[in-house]
Amino acid sequence: MDTIPVKNLPQDTGWIEVICGSMFSGKTEELIRRLRRAQIAKQRVAIFKPAIDTRYSTEHIVSHSGIVLPSVLVTCATDILEGCGNVDVVGVDEAQFFDTDLVDVCETLATRGRRVIVAGLDQDYLGKPFDPMPQLLAIAEYITKTLAICMVCGNPANRTQRVTRSGERVLVGAGDAYEARCRRCFTTDLASLPAQPSGPDFA
After folding, report:
1. Among 129, 138, 76, 130, which residue's Cα sits nearest to residue 107?
2. Count of the separate structural domains present in the chain
3. What is d(CA 202, CA 147) in angstroms, rounded to the nearest whole number?
4. Residue 127's domain is classified under what CATH number?
5. What are the counts of helices (DSSP H) followed by strands (DSSP E) for the chain?
6. pLDDT tens per residue across span 40-72
7. Which of the following is catalytic: 17, 29, 30, 94?
């Protein structure tokens, strides 16, 4: 589901929307699109991302295509509750970098009447569910699954291929560390890949 018809939006209650998929599938771009529409509608919006993600900016959420929107860095999910204030819509990017407290935070905000929009990877580099995304998907009213294009064969891609040998589950990077891959071209055998590169994305 790319959009939520206005006639299907809940009334007088909060809800949770989750945008998930592989890297390079447009998750952040879709998050920004929804948040901008809320701002155009004169709704009060608060946007957060984890402090670990400083790849492109410390003051914005940034899509791989370069679309930006001001945001606040937070070190843990509970900081989101403190930073929301009296807003209508809460956006959270890179949800996979938060701990499972994010689930309770989103539930609390939705119960308080907020529209909560969360974007993140649903699978890690091994193709395993990437917490806390599975828990968020279970409680969300609306789910959007985005697909990328496989960088090997051009098929629709829903997996994130790590292209370095690092075995760390959390490795913040972009095109120098990851590729979008389809089911057929995805592999968990990292033995033949180059060692982890150095650079600002891996500080």
Report:
1. 138
2. 1
3. 25
4. 3.40.50.300
5. 4, 12
6. 999 999 999 998 876 656 667 776 666 788 899
7. 94
